[in-house]
Amino acid sequence: MVKLLTSLSGKRLITYSYRGLRSFNKHQSRPKMALDYYTFGPYKIRSKEVFYSTHLSFAMVNLRPVLPAHVLICPRREVKRFADLTADEISDLWLTAQKVGSRLECHHKASSLTFTIQDGPQAGQTVPHVHIHILPRKVGDFEKNDEIYDAIDEKEKELKKKLDLDEERKDRSPEEMAQEADEYKVLFS
């Protein structure tokens, strides 16, 4: 017996059978036209820094990556906390994360992926907009595996201290970020 789970919009997400999880459908979200910029909390992210988008989510390169290919997946709607996302936004966000993670892992010849969300200020969230960190991982990238979470926390704190809405970004140049985004756009065309 096959049972289908659907999102609120009626998209088929997962097929189950009496044997358990049987297959995942491809992420079929409708792509959306690129904008001049995307909103990430109080910040404007240039479309040149976004390498993949759907009608509900977008993937962007990171201003301060902890590791090579450390990217962020965000809902298009500005939402501070994970619990405030709609079912469709949650589905699209995680399907986007799955697709992006899988392609970056292969592209960078990584062996694993770290997915993390800092949900609220006490969890280390410094930009008040839900986002998933995706970090392709390789053997030995951190001496102790859980040090990755401390590194993400530290980068978030540095970002909060150094990013002022009236200042230009000083870490990675816009050109570097656009170049990385262009490299990743090819993975989705």
TrEMBL record:
Catalytic site positions: H131 (tele-amp-histidine intermediate)
Cofactor(s) listed: Mn(2+)
Superkingdom of origin: Eukaryota
Record domain HIT: where: 36-144
Keyword list, A-Z: Hydrolase, Nucleotide-binding
Site (Important for induction of apoptosis): Y149
Short sequence motif Histidine triad motif: positions: 129-133
Presence of the UniProt keyword S-adenosyl-L-methionine in the record: no
Annotated organism of origin: Vitis rotundifolia
Composition bias type Basic and acidic residues, residue spans: 162-175
Pfam family, one: HIT
Binding residues for substrate: N62, Q118, G124, Q125, T126, V127, H133
Protein name as it appears in the record: Bis(5'-adenosyl)-triphosphatase
GO terms of molecular function: adenylylsulfatase activity; bis(5'-adenosyl)-triphosphatase activity; nucleotide binding
E.C. code: 3.6.1.29
Catalytic reaction annotation: P(1),P(3)-bis(5'-adenosyl) triphosphate + H2O = AMP + ADP + 2 H(+)
Enzyme class, broadest EC rank: hydrolase
